[in-house]
Amino acid sequence: MITMDPVAESQKFFRRISQSSNIMLFLLWHVVHLILSVLYIVREIFRAIENYLITNGYVKTYTNLNLDRVKYLGIVIDSDEARNTSKVVELLEWLSALGVKKLCLYDREGVLKKSKAVFMERFGSTENSVAGPLVSKKRMDFEFVSITDGKEAVAKAANLLFKKYYVDGDSEKPFFTEAHLTDALKTLGAVEPDPDLLLIYGPVRCHLGFPAWRIRYTEMVHMGPLKYKKLGLIMKAIHRFTKVKQNYGS
Asked: Is residue 127 packed enough to be buried (19+ CB in 10 Å), middle (13-18) or exposed (0-12)?
């Protein structure tokens, strides 16, 4: 007489279901991956066509850019990609040709700072250099920023606010706002201009650690990886920014 072990049979049953589920999940993952890959390829094709039409003057809208509204342009580059100096130089040549006058270059680890001499040699002599973060150039003014910049100034500003409002026990203890920090930074002489437009080159859609207190009213545009940069899309981003009405609030 053959006896059946209900526990063993149930284990076999659930094992078969588990194997089937794993196969279905595996197939589903590949289908989703295929769909996303196709969508990415289609998007890149459209971007390439759009870039070709803009750079060759077929789209007249982007021919004359109103750079008066882009007084200070910020460029954020992923530190790994910033090590490709030739790509960065090519990007700067495009911006110089477009007529950009003031430029803030940022990467998290300070790679661009280490390549400062290369940019100086490429874009003019340093005879007119001035002290401070802004280095005067013949064609563009550069500021080099990394994630460590400004932290000391913010710490000093916080210490100043503490001494002003908390050392004296009788003084009123306010709720600190952005205005308090800005005033403290101005007192210390540590206020740098906020970029009007921030173009971000990197694998993720974020500002990659750019000092948050300097992008309060900054328009940010993710441009994709630096190796896939396109002049036409830079022109499009600048044009869109110049046409947007900004409400800064109170």
From this structure: exposed
- For 238, the 3-state DSSP assignment is helix
pTM: 0.73
CATH code of the region 63-148+193-243: 3.40.1180.10
Please give the order of strands across the beta sheet that includes 134-135.
134-135, 141-145, 102-106, 73-77, 197-201, 219-224
* pLDDT tens digits along 205-246: 888 889 887 888 899 999 999 999 999 999 999 999 988 776
| Domain positions in the chain | 1-58, 63-148+193-243, 151-189
Rg (CA), the chain: 26
Nearest-CA neighbor of 83 among 61, 108, 64, 111? 111
| HEC secondary structure over 177-207 | CHHHHHHHHHHHCCCCCCCCEEEEECCCCCC
